């Protein structure tokens, strides 16, 4: 926090509200453009091994002082308090850490999403601008003692300028966050902090009235206003150097603000940091460069005269009074060390770590700057908590205060160096400044007319905090996996597919009716999830990749896409035009897919060539069989499409009427086909029951929608169970019609998808509830968030089943081949969203949601989740996760009714073909669905007549 208040309001305090209000009405900001986003990753001078050590140490401060509830970081180590200036420090540090590879994109997104969510939720002072200080753990407005205060204590215009500069860096380097940042700034009444071309802070008087006070002195005032300019706000008087004079100190003419403490009750100190910040962010150009060079030169002159290394700026210290301004000059005194109330503490003057780092990298050829740097470059805490603030001049002992300001500025400085000394905002290249011109004649003040003041203007000091050591968090090793990518897709020419011809006009009456619109936050989530389907779309043929690192799609993935497409349109995330264009293209592509043995779609397709591939992406010319479960997923999506958009009925029915169901539905159960190779090298097709728990029941419901009689696969009958967390968990259906050795595991995914689309009928609820209960009980027992789920990641084994039970063991994580994945358990983002939608009043489901809502990149969608053991984001983007999130959001807006439409016309080509009798395709015998929508005391759900009758008995 920077407290630089210089004057009271004008004589008529009663007029300030009117003036401020009128200014807000007429002010029209004109944004100032900063550098191009591509330059942010342009590391032209990579850090040396030693510099990498500096950077890692500084970043550890923010790792250890992170507040997960708000996304904020502490301004001082271990103390949960922070100002807007401190928040700006963190954003600058986070951006630097990302481009210097101290953190990966997933962690960056998680941290920034949490931060921006926290910042969006804070209470504003007078509903106008952020309070001067907040509790970083709770987000509450507090005073400088970190005591909650309902009204707040005012705002700081200088701090606002600092965070606006940081916002600009974030939106430039990470443009996917631009809209979010614009929304935050638009919510703030920034114009209230501008008046008469100057910056104005606000403070609260003893009588509880708000007083505006002009803020800023030479150095910080000019720096802060540049942040305002980046967002289109102008304050020309604040940008001007005047009013200032020059004062001779150690033979150097130092520019000094004439508005001193005696006349304005605000300090006019000259310190290093404002010039360092200006240099690394905006560039040391023109007069600013001359001023900065003089400030460095005079500190060198003091060293030459006294032998005392000098690098002065404001800093926290590790003893009372806890915060001091070590200055070149302040309030008529050279080399003053003062508090915000101008109380002297010369015994605590220190060599500042951040100032030494700053001067060293701004002036890399300056021998004195190098000497300063050598004195502090290893001033790191032994427990890897970051850099200490400095070294006391008098005792030569470390000032062991650990702060975000020191460590954030070090990271900024090192990033500036890695960019080849290119300023972070303007992109200008700083060259070593010329030696300052030194006129040793007496100081000559610049003529000024300072405002008249009377009485004592209230002065609010810097945050006074006692730096407590941070809590010791045990270091947990992240999952050790070999980063081997999936099979490489060779260069394949994309096949162009002509979309289906135009269809009838849409019937608006069939569109899903929502109970309310999305909230601002929900819309942000929905738009982020939809971005996956934009980022992984193939515009030539209309397909979408199942996962972002693989150019392939399964029928299950295409069903996910259809579900996501329907949800995005229903939520008004996409326009009717985009929905129709995508639907036309997708249906055309589905009609062109090569069928296995002329019967059903293959298990997978290359999304560029549309040729069959295996799960490793390898071409299989004749195909590799079909999956009844995947076909069920696609059938569910197609059924919903023609139900809510009947204009597509003919096109949908034509696709499914081309298929043969003779072998996928046999004796009332679902079967899948695989291709094996016998010892003689012949490829043989084998058709077997598909019995994967939960998935079989889900797919059966989809087949029943189309009239197929599959009671042996539909939910029901007896299930084998095992006890986990005191709860009987289903492991597989009891049956004697197969001896399948499928890798059985129990995960949440199919059960919650079933719940979202078909509702929880009594039989499914008897499976669903213990599965959820066991996960909640594990959390209660261990404190470990748990979503037993299947997730896809970007490294071996690529698919991880974080099961409730697998291979007879509770809470096992296994791969597709049944191998245990040590420390591989993950919390699934999609499952967390779905449980929160299905169980909105459950405390545990809401806790899951809170733990995962920030795991997304606004350009590429939601990540798969995070590792239980480390909390690290599990890198991977999939259609399955992002589709389920969109469906979960839609479910919350439908009064918690199943997403599968109950309004389907039986007058369509499909039902007409069934009515005509045996077609040789294995169609159902009766032209009507085998299940119906039911609303009773058990809720809203789909079930067959016999199931409903059985439940009622």
Description:
There is one protein chain. The protein is of the alpha+beta class and 953 residues long. The chain has 27 helices and 41 strands. Strands 1, 6, 7, 8 and 9 form a five-stranded antiparallel β-sheet that branches. It has a three-stranded antiparallel β-sheet with strand order 12-13-16, with no helix packed on it. It has a three-stranded antiparallel β-sheet with strand order 17-18-19. Strand 32 and strand 33 (809-810) form a beta hairpin. Helix 12 runs parallel beside helix 14 (404-418).
Sum this structure up briefly.
With 953 residues, the protein is an alpha+beta fold. A hairpin with a 2-residue loop joins strand 32 and strand 33.
On the 0 to 100 scale, the average pLDDT is: 87
How far the N terminus sits from the C terminus, by CA atoms, comes to 69 Å
Beta strand %: 15-25%
Percentage of residues assigned to helices: 25-40%
β-strand number: 41
Helices and strands in order, then pairings?
Layout: E1 5-7, H1 16-26, H2 49-64, E2 81-83, H3 84-99, H4 105-121, E3 124-125, E4 129-130, E5 133-135, E6 154-155, H5 157-173, H6 178-187, E7 194-195, E8 198-204, E9 210-215, H7 220-230, H8 236-239, E10 244-249, E11 252-257, H9 261-264, H10 273-281, H11 286-306, E12 314-316, E13 323-326, E14 329-330, E15 333-334, E16 337-338, E17 350-352, H12 353-362, H13 367-376, E18 388-392, E19 398-402, H14 404-418, H15 520-535, E20 552-554, H16 555-570, H17 576-592, E21 595-596, E22 600-601, E23 604-606, H18 628-644, H19 649-657, E24 665-666, E25 669-677, E26 683-689, H20 695-705, E27 719-724, E28 727-733, E29 745-746, H21 749-758, H22 762-782, E30 789-792, E31 799-802, E32 805-806, E33 809-810, E34 813-814, E35 826-828, H23 829-838, H24 843-852, E36 856-857, E37 861-862, E38 865-867, E39 873-874, H25 879-892, H26 909-915, E40 932-936, E41 939-943, H27 945-952
Antiparallel strand pairs: 1-9, 2-5, 3-4, 6-8, 7-8, 8-9, 10-11, 12-13, 13-16, 14-15, 17-18, 18-19, 20-23, 21-22, 24-25, 25-26, 27-28, 29-32, 30-31, 31-34, 32-33, 35-38, 36-37, 38-39, 40-41
């Amino acid at each position: 926090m920077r407290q630089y208040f210089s004057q009271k309001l004008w004589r008529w305090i009663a007029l300030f509200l009117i003036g401020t209000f009128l200014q807000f009405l007429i002010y029209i900001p004109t944004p100032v453009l900063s550098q191009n986003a591509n330059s942010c990753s342009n590391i032209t001078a990579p850090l040396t091994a030693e510099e990498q050590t500096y950077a890692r140490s500084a970043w550890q401060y923010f790792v250890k002082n992170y507040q997960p509830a708000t996304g904020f970081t502490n301004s001082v180590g271990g103390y949960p308090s922070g100002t807007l200036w401190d928040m700006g420090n963190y954003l600058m540090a986070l951006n630097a850490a990302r481009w210097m590879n101290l953190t990966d994109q997933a962690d960056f997104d998680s941290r920034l999403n949490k931060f921006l969510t926290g910042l969006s939720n804070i209470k504003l002072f007078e509903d106008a601008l952020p309070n001067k200080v907040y509790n970083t753990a709770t987000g509450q407005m507090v005073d400088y003692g970190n005591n909650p205060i309902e009204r707040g204590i005012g705002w700081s215009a200088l701090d606002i300028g600092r965070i606006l500069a940081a916002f600009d860096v974030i939106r430039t380097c990470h443009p996917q966050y631009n809209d979010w940042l614009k929304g935050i700034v638009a919510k703030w009444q920034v114009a209230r902090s501008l008046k008469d071309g100057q910056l104005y802070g606000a403070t609260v008087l003893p009588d509880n009235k708000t007083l505006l006070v002009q803020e800023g002195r030479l150095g910080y005032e000019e720096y802060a206003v540049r942040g305002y300019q980046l967002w289109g706000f102008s304050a020309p008087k604040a940008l001007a150097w005047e009013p200032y004079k020059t004062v001779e100190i150690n033979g150097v003419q130092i520019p000094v603000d004439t508005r001193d403490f005696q006349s304005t009750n605000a300090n006019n100190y000259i310190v290093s940091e404002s010039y360092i910040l200006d240099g690394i962010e905006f560039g040391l150009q023109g007069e600013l460069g001359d001023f900065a060079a003089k400030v460095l030169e005079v500190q060198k002159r003091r060293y030459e005269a006294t032998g005392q290394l000098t690098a002065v700026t404001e800093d926290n210290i590790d003893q009372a009074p806890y915060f001091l301004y070590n200055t070149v000059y302040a309030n008529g005194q050279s080399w003053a060390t003062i508090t915000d109330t101008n109380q002297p503490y010369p015994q605590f003057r220190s060599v500042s770590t951040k100032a030494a780092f700053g001067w060293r990298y701004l002036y890399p050829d300056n021998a004195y700057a190098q000497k300063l740097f050598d004195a502090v470059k290893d001033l790191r805490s032994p427990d890897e908590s970051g850099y200490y603030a400095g070294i006391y001049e008098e005792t030569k002992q470390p000032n062991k205060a650990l702060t975000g300001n020191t460590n954030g500025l070090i990271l900024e400085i090192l990033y500036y160096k890695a960019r080849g000394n290119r300023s972070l905002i303007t992109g200008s290249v700083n060259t070593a400044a010329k030696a300052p011109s030194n006129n040793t004649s007496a100081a000559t003040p610049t003529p000024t007319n300072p405002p008249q003041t009377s009485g004592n203007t209230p002065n609010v000091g810097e945050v006074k905090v006692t730096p407590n050591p941070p809590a010791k968090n045990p270091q947990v090793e992240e999952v050790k996996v070999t980063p081997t990518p999936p099979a490489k897709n060779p260069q394949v020419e994309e096949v162009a597919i002509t979309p289906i011809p135009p269809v009838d006009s849409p019937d608006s009456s069939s569109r899903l009716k929502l109970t309310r619109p999305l909230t601002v936050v929900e819309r942000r989530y929905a738009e982020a999830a939809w971005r996956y389907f934009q980022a992984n779309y193939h515009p030539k043929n209309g397909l979408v990749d199942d996962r972002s690192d693989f150019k392939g799609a399964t029928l299950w993935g295409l069903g996910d896409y259809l579900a996501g497409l329907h949800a995005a349109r229903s939520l008004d995330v996409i326009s009717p035009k985009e929905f129709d264009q995508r639907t036309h293209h997708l249906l055309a592509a589905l009609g062109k897919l090569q069928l296995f043995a002329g019967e059903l779609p293959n298990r997978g397709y290359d999304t560029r060539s549309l040729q069959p591939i295996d799960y490793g992406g390898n071409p299989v010319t004749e195909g590799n069989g079909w999956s009844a479960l995947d076909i069920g997923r696609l059938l569910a999506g197609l059924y919903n499409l023609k139900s809510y958009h009947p204009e597509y009925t003919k096109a949908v029915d034509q696709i499914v009427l081309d298929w043969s169901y003779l072998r996928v539905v046999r004796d009332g159960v679902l079967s899948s086909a695989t291709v094996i190779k016998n010892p003689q090298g012949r490829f043989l097709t084998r058709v077997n029951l598909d019995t994967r728990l939960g998935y079989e029941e889900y797919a059966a419901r989809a087949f029943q929608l189309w009239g197929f009689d599959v009671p042996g696969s539909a939910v029901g009958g007896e299930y084998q169970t095992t006890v986990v967390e005191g709860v009987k968990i289903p492991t597989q259906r009891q049956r004697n019609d197969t001896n399948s050795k499928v890798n059985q595991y129990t995960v949440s995914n199919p059960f919650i998808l079933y719940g979202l689309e078909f509702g929880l009928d009594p039989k499914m609820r008897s499976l669903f509830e213990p599965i959820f209960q066991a996960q909640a009980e594990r959390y209660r027992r261990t404190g470990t968030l748990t979503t037993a789920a299947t997730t896809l990641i970007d490294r071996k084994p690529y698919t991880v089943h974080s099961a409730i039970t697998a291979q007879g063991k509770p809470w096992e994580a296994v791969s597709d081949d049944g191998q245990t994945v040590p420390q591989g358990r993950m919390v699934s983002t999609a499952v967390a969203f779905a449980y929160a939608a299905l169980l909105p009043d459950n405390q545990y489901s809401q806790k899951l949601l809170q733990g995962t809502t920030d795991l997304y990149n606004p350009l590429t969608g939601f990540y798969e989740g995070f590792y239980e053991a480390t909390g690290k984001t599990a890198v991977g983007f999939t259609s399955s996760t992002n589709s389920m999130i969109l469906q979960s959001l839609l479910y919350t807006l439908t009064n918690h009714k199943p997403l599968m439409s109950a309004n389907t016309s039986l007058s369509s080509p499909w039902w007409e073909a069934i009515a005509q009798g045996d077609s040789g395709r294995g169609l159902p015998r009766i032209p009507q669905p085998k299940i119906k929508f039911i609303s009773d005391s058990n809720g809203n759900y789909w079930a067959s007549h016999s199931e409903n009758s059985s439940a009622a008995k």
